[in-house]
Amino acid sequence: MSRFFHGGGSDSESSSSEEEELYSDREAKEEEESSSEDESSEEESSSEAGSDDEEGGKSKGASWFFKDAEESEESEDEERVTVVKSAKDKRSEEVEGTVKLIENAQKIGDWAVISTEFDKLNRQVAKIVQSGTTPKVYIKAVADLEDYANETAAKQKSSNKKMNASNAKGFNTVKQRIKKNNKDYATEIDKYRKDKGDYMESDDELEVITVKKLKPKTLEIAPTGDDEGFEMVGRGGRTLQYTPESILKHLRVIIESRGKKNTDRLEQIKIMEKLLEVATTPYQTIRVLLSLISTRFDLTSSSTSSYMTPEQWKLAGQELTTLISALEEHPEYVITEGAEEWEDDEKQPQLADGEILKVPGSIVSFVERLDDELTRSLQHIDPHTAEYIERLSDEQILYNNIVRALLYVEVLNKNEKLEARQDSVNRVLMRRLEHVYFKPAQVVNILEENTWKALPENLDSSITPRNKSTDVAELVQTLSNYLFQYSDGIIRARAMLCLVYFFALHDKYHRARDLMLMSHLSENISNFDVSTQILFNRTLVQIGLCAFRAGLIYEAQNTLSEVCGSGRQKELLAQGIIMQRYSSVSPEQERLERQRQLPFHMHINLELLECIYLTSSMFLEVPLMAQTSSAPEMKRRVISKTFRRMLDYNERQVFTGPPENTRDGVIMSAKFLAAGDWKKASTTLNSIKIWDLMAQPDKVKEMLAEQIQEEGLRTYLFTYAPFYDSLSISTLATMFELTPKKITAIVSRMISHEELGAALDQVNDAVVFRKGVELSRLQSQIVTLADKSMSLLEANEKTLEQRTQGMANAFQRDHGHSGRGRGQGRGGQRGGGRGGIGGQQGGRRPGGQQFGGGALGGAIKA
């Protein structure tokens, strides 16, 4: 098509504007390049066609007569001056259009439109502010809008006229936002209100750019091997410049975008890392680190995983250490909760000598979040892999931050110019105690030594001094005593449980038992949160294990019966979830249950726990079964239903082979003990490999052998007492390989507890048995009726306790009954026994005292 049919100057103008848009608007770059290439190809084809016509001597047509005119027009196009609007000017026009809409809505009092356009105006200005200064049109609009809102509020108060619903909603929205918005532009607004005319006259004008029409050229970019010479660009292709003066502005934009959808937090983290590099003052460093650490924690909620990656976690830990170090070097800046924000982003605060600036934030919250994220990470990693061990080594970094945060909040708590922050000290101390209480002393010693080596020499703690951190028992006692004195509620209860757990773990049974009884936590533990109840269960189990290691079989069985007898050890100790077939657990409840699970390194070995519980039950149940075989009135008394059920199941088997697991080993040992073969029982029980997991396996096996000898003697006496008139002590010593003195002590204890109707003949060195009185038919029926009545009473009590959620205990105490609360197993009532006929009263307690009730009360006389 000939250029004759094109408009005179429209083609050059459109092409020049297209070329300008090519460099001003990146989004239309590809489209404009293709159009310019098409146009150039058309021009080249037409010129080639013209040259062919000249050479061929053919008719040139109408275009031949306008050739000179076309050449002159092209030369004029090259020198033509065009006004071009950049992307910034376009955005300024958008702002002016929105301002006009707001002014028009003000004339008719339409606050719904004002509210909508005000939000739109702020979004438009935010794009301009990122690359330049705030438009003066915007300053004028927000200043006038604030004045108009104040006038409207005054009119409303004087006239008492109500707006319609949409207008009232828009007015309230603008009224709330305009004051907060104008704080950021207070300086410019004051200048505008002082002299509105001069302020607006100095407004920027549109740039006039002279553009010459150039032939399109191909841009060649030489490939480079690195990124040297390249800069980060923002929206619109503008280079982002980070200077110390613009740090607070960039932080303001990042903070305002926090929580919004489609926010690239990784990009924000990169920006703040750049800001941290250019920060020159302590205040800038502190502000950037606070925002940077918070944004790293926000990555968890935005990603699909429910825990921080190890890389982000370590970076957050390093930045927290840097933050605390900066606060230690500059004590005039204090991070505290509830402080007012510094609103002026144009200038930084200037402090006088001795003045303290409070910066909003919380070091304690950062430490707690860092701790929680490490726990979540350990929950999701397979504990049987090397990755878990590697991740667990990061606990040293966390513990260092906890101790350093503790030193910082201690200083703040002592500062008289600040409000006392005792709660912050308690929270950090509790976190430190929770990382120590379940570990052996040797591990805690290494942890403490590495921590104090990593901290500066000039730092020390007034609660736990550096030179006294070598004694782990003293350290745990000091932390707990401080929390007992200065805290209350859940923190105090958890501190008590941690101290009891630590004592029980280190074989201090009597101290752990006494503290547990004095705390009275078993009476009101149901009022605490789930995590504290889990800690209570763990402490109770650890006390039972400690009692077993000390050879206190009765106390161990009685303490463990509440947890192990329920068959829900995994759930009660937060070491697993039992998925029932017909359970009505919602996905949300299941998710919360999984979040409560403890990391693997905090677990108590459930197989060892079951073995200890069954072994303790065997030592009590086998002699009891032998005793009830000749005493009908005690036939229904059961100490451990779990053990009895397993024993009955094993006896119903047609063929029983050698024991294949821990449970089979204990049951097989019980059968040998009941048959009177204590040697086979001892060999079978000691052959269980689970005992090697205990701290001192040889000592434990020696204790088990002694217990089997004693219980074998008791079983023999209960079984064959009706068939003997007297029995020589020397014969018993030979049979059970015990000293005569030991046998005399055992028999004397059985007689004093009225478990055995006999007397000691010290002259003849023999045991003389007394025959019990035969029960009549009426007496036997009375005993049976009493047993059934007691069974019915127990069932009613259990039902009442379930329906009233623990109120049955208070009811029973008020009416004189021996109630059972949490931590007080059924062994409490069974241990006391029921009054029998024929001299059989109550259960036997090895310690020489009658058990009075409660899971731990077996150690004291009721």
TrEMBL record:
Name of one Pfam family that matches: PCI
Basic and acidic residues biased stretches: 80-94
Recorded family membership: Belongs to the eIF-3 subunit C family.
Gene: NIP1
Biased composition regions of type Gly residues, renumbered to the chain: 1-10, 821-862
Residue ranges of domain PCI in the record: 600-774
Name listed for the protein in its UniProt record: Eukaryotic translation initiation factor 3 subunit C
Taxonomy of the source species: Eukaryota, Fungi, Dikarya, Ascomycota, Pezizomycotina
Keyword annotations: Cytoplasm, Initiation factor, Protein biosynthesis
Any single biological process term in GO: formation of cytoplasmic translation initiation complex
